Amino acid sequence: MSVALKAVITDTAQSLEEKLTSLLGETLLSQEVARPKRLQEAMNYAALSGGKRLRPILMVEAARLLGHTQEGTLIAASALECIHCYSLAHDDLPAMDDDDVRRGRPTTHKAFDEATAILAGDALLTIAFDFIADERVHPDPAIRLRLSQEMARASGIGGMAGGQMLDLASEHRDRTEAEIRQLQAMKTGALIRFACRAGAILASASEDDIARLTRFGEIIGLAFQLADDLLDLTGDAQVVGKATGKDAEAGKATLVGLLGEENARQELDRLIHEADELLEPYGDKAQTLKTLSRYIADRES
């Protein structure tokens, strides 16, 4: 990772951590009755446990690329990160992926209990839509409504949740390449696609720019999952921060399993090249996003 990219990631992640800490704090919002301490602790455990913060960083950088640097972007990015963190808390449960370690420490249901992890995920999902509707996100209510609707579609039956269902159904079954790509575009890609698209929407960009950033997000989403599958095959669990080799053990259909490691790496390079080409019209302003896409492909965790 370049020094410049590391600085961007560190600064944005720190700003996001501070915003999330504030938003998920003890202060009651209007119409809230109370915030049970154990539930709040579990929500904070799930959402404030570090991680790459890739999705919020992509949203912030997409908005910045198009000239939008308002603080409200961090609130929208916090909403998206809550959606992502809820999905991890639920995915780790015994009924789903049954993982004991996430980001190098016990998963939420191991640190608390299964019922609390379920409720923490429920609460993070719900509060995300509270955040995205906040007037500070954008002065135009039509923009906030559009973001809310698109985030729902990216995270629901036609996006992440639907993709997780397809992933569970794919265990020990043969899948075509088209089916695997669709699954991955939903389970992992939908929120990454939304992150890039939302950044452009926050910037009140043209529909052409929104379409270009949307396509960039689609490609990066596929690249992220492909890199993740390669890490599951070849990565060191201590470096990755979670168990590896679980895809093969569960008999899950992946592009790496279908194409083989060498062809999968070639496909990953092709995706990053296409992502770079999409950003060419923006010149030097797109350098951070270009570097970020390469980092996604080359990461070790």
UniProtKB/TrEMBL annotation:
<comment type="similarity">
    <text>Belongs to the FPP/GGPP synthase family.</text>
</comment>
<keyword id="KW-0414">Isoprene biosynthesis</keyword>
<dbReference type="InterPro" id="IPR008949">
    <property type="entry name" value="Isoprenoid_synthase_dom_sf"/>
</dbReference>
<dbReference type="InterPro" id="IPR053378">
    <property type="entry name" value="Prenyl_diphosphate_synthase"/>
</dbReference>
<keyword id="KW-0808">Transferase</keyword>
<dbReference type="GO" id="GO:0046872">
    <property type="term" value="F:metal ion binding"/>
</dbReference>
<dbReference type="InterPro" id="IPR033749">
    <property type="entry name" value="Polyprenyl_synt_CS"/>
</dbReference>
<dbReference type="GO" id="GO:0004659">
    <property type="term" value="F:prenyltransferase activity"/>
</dbReference>
<dbReference type="GO" id="GO:0016114">
    <property type="term" value="P:terpenoid biosynthetic process"/>
</dbReference>
<keyword id="KW-0460">Magnesium</keyword>
<dbReference type="Pfam" id="PF00348">
    <property type="entry name" value="polyprenyl_synt"/>
</dbReference>
<keyword id="KW-0479">Metal-binding</keyword>
<dbReference type="InterPro" id="IPR000092">
    <property type="entry name" value="Polyprenyl_synt"/>
</dbReference>
<dbReference type="GO" id="GO:0005737">
    <property type="term" value="C:cytoplasm"/>
</dbReference>
<protein>
    <recommendedName>
        <fullName>Probable farnesyl diphosphate synthase</fullName>
    </recommendedName>
</protein>
